[in-house]
Amino acid sequence: MKRIRILALILCACFVSAAWAQPQTVGPRMGKFAIHHRAVNSFSKTNAAPSNPLVAAQTAAHQGKVWELGTYPGGTWATIGDVNDFGVAVGQGDLPDGSTHNFAVPLLGPRAGEWIDLGTLGGTESGWEEGLITISDTGVIVGHSASTDQNRPHAIAWTEKSGIVDLGTLADIGYPSYNSSYASGVNRMGTLIVGWSGVEDSCLGCAPALPVVWTPSVVWKNGRTVVTWTIHKLDTTGFDAITNWYAWAVNDFGQIVGEGSGDNGAFVGVIWTPLKKGTWKISILPAVAGYPNSEPFNINDRGEISGDIEPADFSVWFPAFWKPVDPSRNTYSDPIVLPMPQGGYTNCYTDGINELGDLTGECWGDDVDQAVRWTTKNPTFSQLLGFPGDWSWSFRVNNNRIAVVTYGGGDKCSADSYISCGGAIQFH
């Protein structure tokens, strides 16, 4: 742990942007969760809940500041995936020519509201998966972009100093068929990146994929410090039947959460615990009877994990979180089921989780679809974020309680002009 923190100080000096470090104030809908939405829509809905169901709570919110960011100038859609504690949001969208790019949008300071194009790896298409772009507090942005290698998606890291950097694939270290990659998470210090490397496009559910982590090295080159990233395959020992792996998020303690699925379609939630010498050990997160499918999407530095649980037929998603039950974080609680808000909501997941225990995500039903917040400190509480528009979801939330939102409809994101728009909201 001490070594990681020392490296973080070096990386911070390389990465953090003075222009962004301002004082803080308190396409179609396809992407990160598309495969699961399709599964849900193919089954009849049920209101059956796990044992010990919790009661739905408040569904109206009094919010603070709202940012309706819209799209990149001249673009037709945008999604927002993350925001760091300096108020820099990151997302994806299209340029006026229709090409897909990654963007950064500062919410505060002299560049507030400016869409900053992060560029591409040179391919003619960037491809996109909603939410698969994140940012550290040291300014490291990770995601994916189309490479010159037959337009295959490659994981990328971006900083103001380095620009866009190709993180490579498992084909670079002896797994020749795993020639594409996605980076889906970076810790707050910017010292670890996680994701997966797969066969061909390796989008969600498209083809076999293996979980990976990238570790940095700082070297002196041509009179300046340069950060290089090395890809490593994560441990999957004992899970031979699982072919599709997704490492979603990592915290500053090196804990990584993700999931795997096999031919039967079941999802197994796992956590990788860091060991010595840059290795990780895999273990299954606890599940409850009748709900074998679990999806952990994020983890904070307290070791709390956000996600959802589902029955074998995927007929309903219940928002949930796990928490460590011992100081060493080797043992985790059963999933703690969170309530759905009132108003016709039948499915939810949680994704964002900050150090305060705030959780954000999405709930939907036959006629409703809205971003929602919960808290680990009161597992009977749920609340709609109340973002303007007809529908919304939220992937991440920072420690200033600013949650990024993707939304559609409303006065500033007309369905006639945009498929989706980006925004953010700060709640109390």
Description:
The chain has 428 residues and is mostly beta strands. Helix content is 5%, strand content 41%. It contains two helices and 28 strands. It has a four-stranded antiparallel β-sheet, with no helix packed on it. Strands 2-3-4-5 form a four-stranded antiparallel β-sheet, with no helix packed on it. The protein has a four-stranded antiparallel β-sheet with strand order 6-7-8-9, with no helix packed on it.
* Backbone shape: globular
Rg estimate, integer Å: 20 Å
Poorly predicted regions are 1-32, 34-49, 51-60
Spatial separation of the terminal alpha carbons: 33 Å
Q: Strand order across the biggest sheet?
A: 1-28-27-26
Derived structural class: mainly beta
pLDDT averaged over residues? 85
Strand percentage: 35-45%
Q: What sequence of helices (H) and strands (E) makes up the elements?
A: HHEEEEEEEEEEEEEEEEEEEEEEEEEEEE
Count of alpha and pi helical runs: 2
- DSSP, total strands: 28
The percentage helix is under 10%
Question: What keywords describe this structure?
Answer:
single chain; globular; mainly beta; four-stranded antiparallel β-sheet; disordered N terminus; 2 helices; 428 residues
Short synopsis of the structure:
The protein is mainly beta and 428 residues long. Helix content is 5%, strand content 41%. The protein has two helices and 28 strands.
